[in-house]
Amino acid sequence: MPLIRTEKLTKSVPQGGGRLWLLRDVDLEVADGEFVSIMGPSGAGKTTLLHILGMHDGDFEGSYSLDGTRVESLAPKQRADLQRRSIGFVFQSYHLIDDLTVAENLDVPLRYRDVPKRERESIVADVLDRFRIVAKKGLYPAQLSGGQQQLVGVARAIISNPKIILADEPTGNLHSDQAREIMELFRTLHQAGTTIVQVTHSEENAAFGDRVIRLHDGRVVK
Hints:
This protein is of the alpha/beta class. Helices cover 35% and strands 27% of the residues. The relative contact order is 0.21.
């Protein structure tokens, strides 16, 4: 059974007197442990699809199943619990909390999962060491470079050991050396068994994955 499956997934919004179709009849399967890149021109529906897969957007038609659970059938609290349990997010604009230190930013997903304080401290220490950012633990996001902020963003995404990482243009704000470092990190996570779905404009980044899904005008074309 696929980890992710959509059937006839459709998304539209009001426009004028009619509807603007952002996604149309998207059938998609992602296996457990797969690394998939979603590509397409601007306006193709890539980020819209990622936000639905990440359960940031529940207003869609069709079906979306995550690890065998029909997402559209869940109550909001059940959906939020499944999201926290299953998904880690990496954003182009980092989305770190400005008034929290690096260590405190890493602690946030563990707090959401009600991990006891002593266990949280141990997990954060392990991840700081794994990502070689122990020296940055007391710094605030504004004191970090873009590459360092994105490194913290990836660390935060994986700290609660999610089944899936969803990444939206994760290297879009980075220079080439920083971008390659992040993609090499994704490759390492993938090799360790993490499922990754990334939206990217970069053919070079897409080549790190197992396959490419191409969208055009809200439809899967390849």
